[in-house]
Amino acid sequence: MTASSTLSVTELETERLLLRQVSGTDREGLIELFTDPEVRAHLGGPRPRPEVERMLDHLGTTHVPGSYAIADRETNEFLGGLWLDRRPVDVPGHVTEDGNELELSYALRRSAWGKGIAYEAAAAVLRAAADEMPDQPVVVVTQTANQRSMKLVERLGFRVVRTFEQFDAQQALGTASLYSFKA
Ligand SMILES: CC(C)(COP(=O)(O)OP(=O)(O)OC[C@H]1O[C@@H](n2cnc3c(N)ncnc32)[C@H](O)[C@@H]1OP(=O)(O)O)[C@@H](O)C(=O)NCCC(=O)NCCS
Questions:
Q1: Fewest C-beta in 10 Å: which of 46, 97, 164, 177?
Q2: Could you tell me if the CB of 102 is within 6 A of ligand 1?
Q3: 3-state helix, strand and coil shares in percent for the chain, rounded to the nearest 5
Q4: 2: pLDDT confidence band, cut at 50, 70 and 90?
């Protein structure tokens, strides 16, 4: 186990969802995720489609540890993405001196909002990480203006410990101990 490690399982199932690796059939959904002005409202704005296409061409469907496509369990339709990686030391917003904490982030297609899907996916990934990894702090950073995300952060059980400026916006830093997500 190294300081940069994250959850190693590549697939998880919940009541309604399949968390799996990205596949070629997710391409249009991923393009929508990066180009939709509503989804990107608190993430620096929509990216131009050609730029997103180039990025996807470059990344392909190689599995990145801690990176999950959220899919409908029945239909396998791509609903969004969820990431449990490490918060780089050289960006603001940390709860430990060394930084590099486990960091949760998520984005759903607009049509998947308001159904509890992000909560279900995040809770499953955090529970699996708690079963697999040593206890440690997990952080989540979200714009304070992002009301849906702020509600999700609280509902998952993160405590907002402070706010700070990044990307010309006020960000909330939420934290929880990984083991608080154990079943
Ligand atoms: C942040 C984001 C994932 C939140 O999505 P969300 O659907 O509001 O989040 P949740 O999964 O917690 O769902 C909660 C909503 O589902 C509703 N809901 C419906 N059925 C539900 C169920 N079975 N269980 C739980 N909630 C349910 C809740 O009432 C709540 O709706 P409300 O807020 O209108 O009252 C979404 O807005 C998004 O993708 N935003 C763009 C990306 C982004 O900004 N990411 C943040 C960077 S980390």
A1: 97
A2: no
A3: 30, 30, 40
A4: low
Structure confidence by residue, pLDDT tens digits, 58-84? 988 888 899 999 999 999 999 999 999
Minimum CA distance residue for ligand 1 atom 24: 116
E strand or H helix that includes residue 51? helix 49-59
- The domain spans of the chain are 12-135
How many percent of the chain have pLDDT more than 90? Answer: 93
Q: Which CATH architecture has domain 12-135?
A: 3-Layer(aba) Sandwich (3.40)
Residue nearest to atom 32 of ligand 1 (CA): 114
User: Three-state SS for 138?
Assistant: strand
Q: What number is the average pLDDT over the span 2-8?
A: 76
- Residue 14 DSSP one-character state: -
- Ligand 1 close to Cβ of residue 110 (< 6 A): no
